[in-house]
Amino acid sequence: MSKAALTDFTGAEIRPGRLIAFPTRKGNRVRNTEAVVLETLSDKSSGRIVPKLKVRPTGRESGISARKTLTPQTIGAEHVVVIGDAPTA
Questions:
Q1: Are 51 and 41 a contacting pair, CB within 8 Å?
Q2: What is the edge-to-edge ordering of all strands in the sheet holding 29-43?
Q3: CA–CA distance from 82 to each of 9, 65, 85, 87 (Å)?
């Protein structure tokens, strides 16, 4: 039995190497952040399987003030949208 593919709300597959956009909070405001998926994870601690993603922000996001750090972070996969494949540098 294989695992089902993790998809965003449009049906695009979320996998490592994909470029995504997701909402983040800064203070009392919400902004959109762009990131590259490093790994797909699942959290089973609440009794249900919750999909999570380990991502590395690219530094491109909405809002006036710039992001201070580009360290990888773990986010929920609930409100993610796939933009395309990450550019290779």
A1: yes
A2: 73-76, 50-61, 29-43, 18-26, 81-85
A3: 9, 24, 8, 13
pTM, entire model: 0.86
- Cα(51)–Cα(66) distance, rounded to whole angstroms? 28
- Distance, in Å, from the CA atom of 73 to the CA atom of 48, rounded to the nearest integer, reads 21
Residue 41 CA neighbour count, 13 Å, CB half: 14
CB atoms within 10 A of CB 86: 18
Other CB atoms within a 10 A radius of the CB of residue 36 amount to 17
Residue-level pLDDT at 44: 87
DSSP output for 48-75: S-EEEEEEEEEEEESSSSPPS----EEE
Run of H or E residues at 40? strand 29-43
Q: What is the pLDDT of residues 36-89, one digit of tens each?
A: 999 999 888 888 888 999 999 998 888 777 777 889 999 999 899 999 888 776
